[in-house]
């Protein structure tokens, strides 16, 4: 019986993770609800009167987004509007929890660096080329993972692969600290994240918030030295 090497098994799980992230985000892209004005207008109908007046009441950032959506809607043919309205109806029919899951996946996809998006796309193409039974087996393996590990793959192929190491640091991280922390973790090497894992394991849960803050505050050029100093304590 042929055994899979650790590297091939790892690639298999990565492929499933990448596929899950890519397909979830693609599903959201195909099923996102129509822009607010478009939903009111209906397929083939003219935009409601008073849109310009409404736009002037909004903050500049929201005004720009809505104006862009209005212009996009106006550029569509009646057939395109009808197709989009159908997708919007399908989106509205989804349970709230499923809509939330897909939004989260889409936001995670958008947050990935371009190179990692390409990597995930390659994983998806590799997965699609596999026989059906292999795809189903890989899906089953991924579904068998702990829910927190599955969610960890939303961080992408780099941090997702190390999520089992990073979970102790990312668990219950305050919202305002999450983005800076993820940026630092993504900039670290795999070896540095392995060292950080050892450090997190040594740190009591009540002291991990201070550890996170110190890690984020440490300049990139001094990060390796900081890790050595912390591990030598």
From TrEMBL:
Presence of the UniProt keyword Signal in the record: yes
Protein name, UniProt field: DUF3106 domain-containing protein
Range of residues in the leader sequence: 1-29
TM annotation in the entry: none
Top-level taxonomy: Bacteria, Pseudomonadati, Pseudomonadota, Gammaproteobacteria, Lysobacterales
Residue ranges of coiled coil: none
Keyword vocabulary terms for this entry: Signal
Pfam family, one: DUF3106
């Amino acid at each position: 019986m042929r055994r899979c090497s650790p590297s091939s098994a790892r690639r298999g799980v990565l492929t499933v993770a990448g596929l899950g992230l890519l397909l979830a985000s693609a599903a959201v892209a195909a099923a996102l609800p129509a822009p607010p004005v478009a939903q009111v207008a209906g397929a083939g109908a003219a935009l409601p009167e008073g849109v310009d007046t409404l736009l002037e009441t909004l903050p500049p950032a929201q005004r720009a987004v809505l104006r862009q959506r209005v212009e996009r809607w106006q550029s569509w043919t009646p057939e395109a509007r009808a197709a989009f309205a159908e997708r919007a109806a399908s989106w509205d029919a989804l349970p709230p929890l499923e809509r939330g899951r897909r939004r989260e996946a889409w936001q995670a996809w958008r947050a990935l660096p371009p190179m990692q998006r390409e990597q995930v796309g390659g994983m998806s193409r590799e997965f699609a080329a596999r026989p059906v039974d292999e795809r189903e087996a890989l899906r089953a393996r991924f579904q068998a993972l702990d829910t927190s590990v599955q969610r960890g793959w939303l961080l992408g192929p780099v941090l997702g692969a190390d999520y089992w190491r990073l979970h102790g640091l990312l668990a219950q991280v305050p919202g305002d600290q999450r983005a800076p922390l993820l940026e630092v973790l993504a900039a670290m090497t795999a070896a540095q994240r392995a060292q950080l894992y050892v450090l997190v394991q040594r740190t009591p849960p009540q002291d991990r918030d201070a550890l996170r803050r110190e890690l984020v505050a440490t300049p990139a050029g001094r990060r390796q030295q900081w890790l050595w100093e912390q591990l030598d304590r």
